[in-house]
Design brief:
48% helix; elongated; two-stranded antiparallel sheet; 193 residues; mainly alpha
């Protein structure tokens, strides 16, 4: 679903450490949504992104009760209001959400979720189920590898004129937030020492 994100995606979109999102899950502040087509991962709702950003940037420590209230209050707002309107978290304590995290954070998260659905494809018949850009055999990890290796988005687009900037940026974010699981290939010990 476009408005459901993995914990790593929430951390990347909110620009916070993954341990901050994991802590919110452990404290039952953020509740996971049962994953469907995305595998067995627990997915988090859209409001998890602004929640993680707000808690990380607030210059005070919130009680567990206040954190839960904040998450519920954000969850009850529409995505358009989520980061644009101030939010009262306690009597006489109002958070100017847009000043703290930016007024377009929820909108950017929604755009990424839609782009992820539009551009990233996981099909066991294509590249053995490795995530690829839809309609191609270009893996999201190869796109990220090129960008981390020094190529720019424009370099990738020049080599693949059928791709869009949004597709390349989405693939890179997806690859960063969904690392390949398992042992590294080859003989990594041969390079040690």
């Amino acid at each position: 679903m476009p408005n459901e994100f993995s914990a790593r995606e929430v951390a990347e979109l909110a620009n916070v450490p993954i341990r901050a999102v994991d802590k919110a899950i452990e404290e039952n502040v953020l509740a996971g949504i049962r994953a469907g087509a995305r595998g067995r991962r627990r997915m988090l709702p859209l409001h998890a992104v602004p929640y993680a950003a707000i808690v990380a940037r607030l210059p005070l420590t919130l009680s567990l009760e206040t954190k839960r209230y904040l998450a519920r209050a954000l969850g009850n707002r529409s995505s358009a209001r989520m980061t644009t309107e101030p939010l009262e978290i306690a009597p006489a304590v109002t958070v100017d959400v847009s000043a703290l995290v930016g007024s377009d954070l929820a909108e950017r998260a929604e755009r990424y979720g839609k782009a992820r659905e539009d551009f990233v494809e996981i099909n066991p018949d294509i590249m053995g189920g490795t995530p690829v850009l839809r309609g191609t055999r270009i893996t999201v990890y190869s796109v990220l590898g090129r960008l981390e290796g020094g190529d720019s988005v424009d370099d990738v687009l020049e080599d693949n004129p059928d791709l869009t900037r949004e597709a390349v940026e989405t693939a890179a974010l997806y690859a960063r937030t969904h690392p390949i699981v398992g042992r590294p290939g080859g003989r990594p010990w041969a390079k040690a020492a």
